[in-house]
Amino acid sequence: MNRYLRYSIPLIIFVVIALFLGWGLRHDYDPKHIPSPLIGKSMPTFSLPSLEQADTVISDKDLLGNVYLLNVWATWCVSCRAEHETLVQLARTGKVDIIGLNWKDERDKAEVWLRQLGNPYSVNIFDKKGRTAIDLGVYGAPETFLVDSQGIIHYKHAGPVTMQLINDTILPIVEQLKSKG
Amino acid sequence: MRRLFFVLSLLFLSHTAFSATLAEYSFETSQQDEDFRAIIEEMRCLVCQNESLAGSNAELAVDLRNKIYDMMQAGQGKDQIIDFMVARYGDFVLYSPPVKPSTYPLWFGPILLFIIGAVVLLTILRKKNRSRETELSTEEQQRLDNLLKQSTDSRNADQ
Description:
Chain A is of the alpha/beta class. In chain A, the strands form 2 sheets. Chain A has a 5-stranded mixed β-sheet with strand order 5-4-3-6-7. In chain A, strand 4, helix 3 and strand 5 form a beta-alpha-beta unit. Chain A is elongated. The model of chain A has no long low-confidence stretch (mean pLDDT 91). Chain B is an all-alpha fold. Chains A and B meet through helix 4 of A and helix 3 and helix 4 of B.
């Protein structure tokens, strides 16, 4: 018995190491994913110009009363371009409002982008200095937040959204939030 | 040798670049300056993950440094600034994670492993000692005595 135990020690060590390494290789593991402490919290207060009209000011209170996706994007962000078509398709279904937070960008470039690629956003907030993005804990575009009618953040996704993510994860939460009122 | 010198000079170059990025932040007191440096050394740049806010030139790191600078100029203390950052970016932004249930394995895991190792080592050593000191059964003792007696007898006979 003792001898068996002794010979099985290397095997046990191997299995433990293999499990740890295997855990690190699982396909949905992303070391860049950082859980947001903002889930369950209110949208930060802000007051910023709109992208389309420089003299129109949008504040967090203007967005209350509606379930919406807040999508952080910029023309310098390559993944945002990859994601854009998905957002346009989602907007076409009319299932949820998409609000853009144009992050550290230039107004004319952003306007050209929307004209060329289509505009899925019902409104765009122009965060030139990125201060509201800091309040949202944004660390890389694109990022997408799901906010309810009371302004509470329920979900956050860092990186481009896909149709699969929208259908499997985002829209079910949207339905739930809308039925709640 | 020349290559070594080249690599070393690169290191020095990177250091000057690094100090230059911080030169733009000036404070009234040297205490504030120290606090500022301490805070940005303790915070992780979320884009590059293995760099501190002090060492990173990523655009987000620059923005966050500016934000921290502004907060300090507005008279906010170190704790307030750290709370501000953790509220937005989570514990991940801290290089030294706080001690709480979810980080217990991180903080106490190494000590636990050390204790387990020490216990295993001690038991093995003790077992080895014990097997060396095992007492003889009366039968074995008798045989040993006989053998010893025989050898002394034969030695006496030789003389």
